[in-house]
């Protein structure tokens, strides 16, 4: 079988992983990979596997890229907000707060993680298409901006906010009629989405809010999808949002904030070609400014909610290789000690990833394998065709670009404990998430007493 080697002589030795990996990825004199100055195989030894590794320099560089691009292209009137669904932890909350970011939370859990991680309450936006009363109260009591997604939110808040109390600060989410779930996008009048008000409902909702003493509408919000490589949909979004801004202000709402959501894609495999953060921000900022000026609207504060593009490339996952199954003429399965429970994106979205051996990234490719997880599910495959040197059981494998929607979407399927996570920087590794133990998974089980009766 002819296998095309990703490690052709004369190429950048880290290619094709250079563009996929954290910015501090290096190869030492023994040809072993390190991130943040920490040898990956040593991290695997010290913290066990599977292990999420996050590179602090990459995280901060991405935050800085957003911040500086916003200052450059939309001076003085912007607020980036981290979509914490991508990767939520006390460390992430604290890190983004220290970088001047707000945070978008969608549950009591994410909200508490943000507040305890030190994100200022007035820098948090609270989303969700089915918020509970407890969640709404937690957000309101902490002075967090609540994104109104539907009439239910309005009805519940009208009851929950006490008379004569400080009004709730609200943002209104609507469905912009721009669908962008693949690398193609379409514009339609109405969209089949569970999120946000239909555009036709906006005027009556805005009218009804005028009479609500308990509510202060400060912003409008829309989000068009995730892992988007095109810039054109964001130009269209600016036009649609400016129409809504005009409508709301025209009715007398003091709307200051225009929140365009997140969505910028990242490179998972070499063939992915997303725009840079700089280009994305420039296009969004110019489009919003143009759309507002053409309607004679004072420029709103521009908010955006990046998730994936902040954390995905900063993360790698380390696994140990285990069993090998060779089906002659068909396929070779190499299994790792994790899989769909720590990275559900492959089985859920057929997402592509790249990987290499931690201590032999430059060794010539000798075979193409299928990288399988250890779960009781045939579809538990992390990478379908992965070109590798002949790898042995016990070697550490690095999967790139796993910082977003891996830990945060992880599960305990097959009662497999969640991995630990470490943050690396300048040769130092700090534990930011302890490894779950099998006993932890029993903590919430309750055996009814009658099952314990002897007899
Ligand atoms: C409302 C909202 N904002 C922001 C994001 C973050 O998107 P991304 O991670 O693609 O930047 C999402 C993702 O689903 C979202 O639903």
Amino-to-carboxy terminus distance:
63 Å
Q: Tell me how many strands there are.
A: 22
Into which percentage range does the β-strand content fall?
A: 15-25%
Report the biggest beta sheet as strand number plus sense, adding barrel if it closes. 9 strands, mixed
CATH architecture of the largest domain: Alpha-Beta Barrel
Mean pLDDT equals 93
Bound molecules: pyridoxal-5'-phosphate
Low-confidence parts? 1-11
The CATH topology of the largest domain comes to TIM Barrel
This entry's quaternary arrangement is: single chain
Radius of gyration: 24 Å
Structural class: alpha/beta
Overall body shape: globular
Tell me the domain tally.
2
CATH superfamily of the largest domain: Alanine racemase
What is the count of helical runs? 12
The CATH C-level class name of the largest domain = Alpha Beta
The helicity comes to 25-40%
